[in-house]
Amino acid sequence: MIKQLSREDIANMQERERARLINSLSGFKSANLVGTQDAQGNPNLAIVSSVFHIGANPPLIGMIIRPDTVPRDTLSNLQATGHYTLNHVNSTIWQQAHQTSARYAPGVSEFSEVGLDTQLADGITAPYVAQSQLKFALALREVQKLEINGTLLVIGEVFDIQLPHDSIKADGYIDIESLHTVAISGLDSYHETRRLGRLSYAKPEHLPRQLNLNGE
Amino acid sequence: MIKQLSREDIANMQERERARLINSLSGFKSANLVGTQDAQGNPNLAIVSSVFHIGANPPLIGMIIRPDTVPRDTLSNLQATGHYTLNHVNSTIWQQAHQTSARYAPGVSEFSEVGLDTQLADGITAPYVAQSQLKFALALREVQKLEINGTLLVIGEVFDIQLPHDSIKADGYIDIESLHTVAISGLDSYHETRRLGRLSYAKPEHLPRQLNLNGE
């Protein structure tokens, strides 16, 4: 049986209920930990489910953050140092990753509170998460306020990538499933994945064919 | 063994290889079909992997499109009618969904070319995909050019949602895994999911506990 929800039905929902519903609409979301540090080098870690691809050349990644709900530390830190890291959440750390969303007092390190380790790299003024298998560092390019609801679009350029050597395939594809990267649905549901397949570049003349993991 | 890629390594990659690599970085991506129609009512369908949540109240969804690579029809149609639909790609239509990315001649309907059916609804000047289980209609709110690389951020407000009655849980969460919604990695890999669990709202005092599907 099909349920239909109108604009009015949505507007009349209770706040938390609507938040869970609307957060489920976009589909599966990426699960990343944002690593930052303040001017004194104190580390901060926050989970984000709104990281998305903007462009490959230059390599640009976007993320949406709410000044009111996300630890303000993340925003002020990445603006202070100009750097932040994104670290894939995997199936061994998903519960610790979720716990970083608790409102710890400013100055408290979510790394130590949830039991994850910082990993520092030369020339990057932000900590990586040691337990994450695929991680990359970004230089802040812009913070744009979306006037329509006051959320912030943060855009960064990737300048360092660290991952297991054999997870990159010959054609550049990274097998993130083999790294046990998880996906999020709604506000609080975490999921492993099982590959249906890779498909060839679509052309009008014929249907796509299945590729192997190496893109062949 | 860990591989590290520097800014120079990334810049020196071959174009398609870099595109596959950078598109793999953000993590798992949502898989949606954008349904639109032109002023004459001719339907158009295109797969997008860049749909993301912007806010719940009002219910705002964003998507990034590249004027140069995405069928221009999608953009001109949603600007002409003011409406578009987003339809979850599921594990029964993932190959047809991928095929919509082929560059069909303008005016050709991807629906008929790939074998998906339009589903019309009163007051919505855009077609739904009949074979999609979770679908919603949006009223265009803004199209913003990201000057940093010329891509477009399209923001719409949700005004109609259609889904199986039992997929919405008591607390508003939609069990999109039960609808066989798929996730995308890179440019061409499709994935089913298996739930690890739902977690309670994180609080500093204690670790999150596992919730059941109903959020209890």
From TrEMBL, chains A, B:
Coiled coil: none annotated. It comes from the Bacteria. Residues 33-167 form the Flavin reductase like domain. The keyword Repeat does not apply. Its cofactor is FMN. Keywords: Flavoprotein, FMN. One of its GO terms (molecular function) is FMN binding. Belongs to the flavoredoxin family. This is Flavin oxidoreductase. The lineage of its organism: Bacteria, Pseudomonadati, Pseudomonadota, Gammaproteobacteria, Alteromonadales.
